Amino acid sequence: MSDSITSGPGSPGPEAFSSDAVFHVEPRADAPEPVLFHVEPGPDTVGARRDAAEPVVFHVEPPAVAASIFGDRLALAQRYAAHLVGSGVERGLLGPREAPRIWERHILNCAVITELMPEGSTVCDIGSGAGLPGIALAIRRPDLRVTLVEPLLRRTTFLDLATSTMELTNVSVHRGRAEELHGEAVFDVVTSRAVAPMDRLTRWSMPLVRAGGLFLAMKGVSAEHEVDSAARELHRLGGTDPRVVAVGAEWLTTPVTVVEVGKSGMTRLSGQSGGRPGGGR
């Protein structure tokens, strides 16, 4: 996928900003929330063009498929999108180039992995960052109880703000590292996105998976190779039947690649193919 930014006439292209640019993001006052966002260089911007006629305008309307994925919780997902392209960009949790593709690349991409999660599961999202995938999961499936684990204060501050303003009562935020919860808590499902290579991720995640639970790691094209490389660690920590699955093909142009691993000890949980909006089947 291209890294280009969709901009209005006379707007600066992506080459006009240095990697150190600081952006001030605020919604248009005259637009129905949360459709368009003006993104203007802030006073501390380094290397930004000063002669641009207009600010960059990001279109963050959800694609039509979002209604099929989120159902009657789409409005809540839109509020989350507004948080991401607003304070998420301001706080440096997402780059401004991600704003135009916030739905396809981030929110929908994460939400569809609920297809693998049994109804009523407790879920731990380690290295949650801006709440991906955890918040997207909790929005789509209110039956899930999601714990967001993140060590950095600026990120947990954003997570607390977003979840409290959206009144996501099925989400809690834990500031700390996954290893600090070893021996203290276990979950039905432990998941993560773009956190670490599979062998290291296994050491962080598997001790948090209860017997019979699932470890779901969102990965890319190297998933098969990563599973092979982590085979010893997976076996040592009780991992069973590792497999690479594609999720979301009925909605997404590019399905999401997930490494699914069971945890030995009792009958393995099975995902609900009907993990639909509202937790229905």
Describe this structure in words.
There is one protein chain. This protein is an alpha/beta fold. The chain has 2 domains: 92 residues, no CATH class; 171 residues, Rossmann fold (3-Layer(aba) Sandwich). The chain contains 8 helices and 10 strands. A hairpin with an 8-residue loop joins strand 9 and strand 10. The protein starts with 22 loop residues before the first strand and ends in an 18-residue tail after the last strand.
End-to-end span in angstroms? 32 Å
Question: Which regions contain 5 or more consecutive residues with pLDDT less than 50?
Answer: 1-57, 272-276
The assigned CATH architecture of the largest domain is 3-Layer(aba) Sandwich
Helix content: 25-40%
Write down the domain tally: 2
Give a short overview.
This protein has 281 residues and is of the alpha/beta class.
Observed structural traits:
single chain; 281 residues; alpha/beta; 2 domains; three-stranded antiparallel beta sheet; 8 helices
